[in-house]
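Lecture 7, part 2: worked example. A protein chain together with zinc ion.
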Amino acid sequence: MRILIKNGELLLAEGEGFKAKRGSVVIGGKRIEKVVLDGEEVSGEFDKIIDAANKLVMPGLINAHTHAYMSIFKNFADDLEFFDWLHKVEEVEDKMSAEDCYWTSLLSIAEMIRTGTTCFVDMCMRSKVVSEAARKSGMRAFIGRGLVKEADDPEALRRLNEFLEDAEMNTDSDRVKFILAPHAPYSSPQSLLRLVRETGFKRNMMATIHMSESQAEVEGIAAEQDGKTPVEFVAETGLFDLPTIGAHLVKATDKDIEILKEKGVSVAINPRSNMKLGNGFAPVSKMLEAGVNVCLGTDGSGSNNTQNMFQEMNFASLVYKGDEKKAKCVDASEVVKFATINGAKALQMEGEIGEISEGALADIIVLDLEVPEFVPRNDLVSALCYSANGSEVVTTIVNGEVLMEDKKILTFNESEVFEKCTEIAERLGMNGLEK
Ligand SMILES: [Zn+2]
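Predicted complex, written out as structure tokens:
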């Protein structure tokens, strides 16, 4: 399939930031064949032509940390302290069937496609059905099964083995990959982290783990582990010898940041989730100064309550300025990098996704610029962070396949997903008035 996206404003990486230039993009198969700037000839035959006049053509966003199956937890356990929130969610979560998780994952994916995400990193309880949902939708995904308990615990081994079987089932997919996902320092003992490290080397897999998300976690680990921080606790096991994405790192110390930099650990910040759960703000400008690769995630809908990366970019551009009382600390262009190029780096896919360039995979979104948010076009990069809300996305393309066109999702029946998820929430007693 050859697709021409013509006459758009193309958001191209330039120097340390981005520049919008008028032009067209030729997609051949799953890759960007050519980026044609205005004035140059576009030649050849096309199966599909997308007119992008008055539209912005930019790399699809990379959601570096979420739990897609948690879509039905939005607006369910709000305004609770972190561990109260976790327990309330877990109670319902345990009652969800595999089929439930398939539909609820598709619901998150629908929201992601609608708001311009083309790739997500997931931590879930049922990697089989999440991979089925991702494959159905056409999204690019890195799927991890939350791993807990000591390495010799039968439950830990069952989860790991099922996860590895699910990974085997998907080796034919060039979009759905698997990532090892020990849950967190307070639920994944060091024996498990060592087993994960070993497995990662054997299977050539990356890892992702929650770390330093809350003060309670930091205090708990320090009390049990001789005053260590969660980062030190994980580092000791050698887990960071695998390419790793740490989620949250709200309470990272200066020494933690040194370890993260030295071991090349990428940090997925989740500002909305951190604010909602009252956990505070990651020391982002310190991480950037130290040269840590910072990317961006929504976290699950239970703690956000959306999968909308534009909202996340908006928060990321604002909250650290407020927290650090420094208006310059994280600028708009930096935040767009978090959601694109830095996400690609974190996933070892630099040059492949997160950018519009010749030879890269065609993960592209198209935004309508004829909306109040983008008028006047003083600075498109600023507008993405400070003015846009995600509803401007009209077309979403992954791996050269159009998943949404003119705001209609083409790869699955969205109404069916809404119906199923409403039924699930009703059955689990989640929605409406107090039962
Ligand atoms: Zn999470």
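The first helix runs from residue 82 to 93. The longest strand covers residues 2-14. Keep this in mind for problem set question 3.
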